[in-house]
Amino acid sequence: MQRKIRWIFGALLTAVACAVLVWTFQGPIATALLAQMVHKNVGRNTIAELPDGLHLALCGTGSPFPDPSRAGPCSAIIAGERLFIVDTGEGSARNLGYMGIPAAKIEAIFLTHFHSDHIDGIGPFLLQRWGVGTFQTPTPVYGPVGVEQVVDGFRAAYVLDFGYRVAHHSPKIMPPGGSGGKGMPFALPAAGQGDHVVVLEDRGLKVTAFRVDHAPIDPAVGYRFDYKGRSIVITGDTKKTPSVQSLAKGVDILVHEALQPTLVKILETEFSSQGMNNMSRIMQDILNYHTTPEEAAAQAAAAGAKELVLNHIVPPLPLRFAYPAFLGDAAKYYDRPITVGEDGMLFSLPANSVAVERKKLY
User: Fold this and answer.
1) Is-contact 173 212, C-beta < 8 A?
2) Which of 27, 61, 184, 189 is the most exposed place for a label (fewest CB within 10 A)?
3) What CA–CA distance (Å, rounded) separates 301 from 338?
4) Is residue 228 part of a domain?
5) Would you state the pLDDT for residue 357?
6) Among candidates 227, 231, 225, 223, which has minimal Cα distance to 252?
């Protein structure tokens, strides 16, 4: 018994001594740990570690609602070693860094529509690509007609910042010609004359834009990416619409927005009880131009999509325990994998195969 007491007493003394040492040398220890972290993360390039193929990285799966676990809508598409961004929700550029995906690799940005939550993070993307990549030309930003106005507006807002950075770091480090973005508008076919257009076809990659129904927001589009036998469709914001079914035929991954009315009703009721009638009305309004998880599942089944990933999650889900409540009866309409998207998820589709590899990058 005495030996056991002595052992416990000795262990306590050792623990106290260690704590005192750590506290005393907290600065040097923290500096060493930070140096290790910097060595591990600076220059990290997840893209270089991926097999040739098509890859989907979720850099933002949220919506305009405050959500500490989700940035605004953003998907990174990697085709071989080429990187493209679809939508630029607030906070998503930071997430791209967390995932080890270099902003300097961004070849172009695609916008689905011009709602604020899909464009409000574009500034950091343009800045990071320019600052890290020392590009001589602006970032191409594809979108339906109106994208020029959006991109020019952000450039106007950042023009003083661009000047500061060139003056501070020199034109060699921050080439003036590489600042900002360049709007690359495309026109969809007229009503009744088709619902899609190829906006990029180069080096084995084909990007097709298609009309979706997010009225009164018009134009609004989704995108299909095809590369070496693999395919990904991103709907953007839309209510259930036939164009998604037709453009997602046989797709490997359908990334579809989703709103659960049952849970939104909880918010509506609470806003009303608090006398916040404006917000209560907004909760009613948003129901008529989004898609429920059940409808998204039915779309995926009708298209023959091999996997369904839900993003633009409404309302926020504070814990995974709430996922079944969010999904509702979706599994009744689609018997293949359904994933509630989370920031940091990576889906890899190796070229010319049927495999789907999944991991969380942070």
Assistant:
1) no
2) 27
3) 11
4) yes
5) 96
6) 231
Q: How far apart are CA 97 and CA 18, in angstroms?
A: 35
Per-residue pLDDT at 13 exceeds 80:
no
Distance CA 308, CA 334 (A): 9
- Rounded Cα distance, 248 and 243, in Å: 8
- Domain range holding 283? 49-115+182-360
- What total number of domains does the chain contain? 2
Q: What pLDDT does 28 receive? A: 81
Q: Any residues with CB less than 8 A from the CB of 182 and at least 6 apart, and which?
A: 137, 138, 139, 140, 141, 151
> Are both 250 and 192 inside the same structural domain?
yes
Lowest-confidence segment of 17-21, 135-139, 302-306 by average pLDDT: 17-21
Rounded mean pLDDT of the chain? 93
pTM higher than the cut 0.70:
yes
87 is catalytic: no
220 and 276 within one domain: yes
Q: pLDDT tens for residues 204-230? A: 999 999 999 999 999 999 999 999 999
Residues 32 and 101 in one domain: no
Residue 44 included in any domain: no
Integer Cα distance of 76 and 96 in angstroms: 8
Instruction: Output the six-digit token pair for 147.
Output: 């994208």
Q: Identify whether 345 is part of a domain.
A: yes
Catalytic residue among 52, 67, 87, 117: 117
Yes or no: say if 144 and 219 are a contact pair by the CB < 8 Å rule. Answer: yes
Measuring CA to CA, which residue among 116, 111, 115 is closest to residue 147? 111
Tell me, yes or no, whether 71 and 17 share the same domain.
no
Q: Are residues 234 and 281 in the same domain?
A: yes
Looking up tokens 């076809």 gives 201
> Using CB atoms within 10 A of its CB, is residue 119 exposed (0-12), middle (13-18) or buried (19+)?
buried
Report the run of H or E that residue 300 belongs to, with start and end: helix 293-303
- Whether residue 188 contacts residue 195, with contact meaning beta carbons closer than 8 Å, is answered with yes
329 vs 132: CA distance, rounded Å? 45
Neighbours of 6 (CB within 10 A): 10
Tell whether the model's pLDDT for residue 7 goes beyond 80.
no
Q: Do residues 40 and 46 lie in contact, with contact meaning Cβ atoms separated by under 8 Å?
A: no
- 354 in a domain, yes or no? yes
Same domain for 92 and 18? no
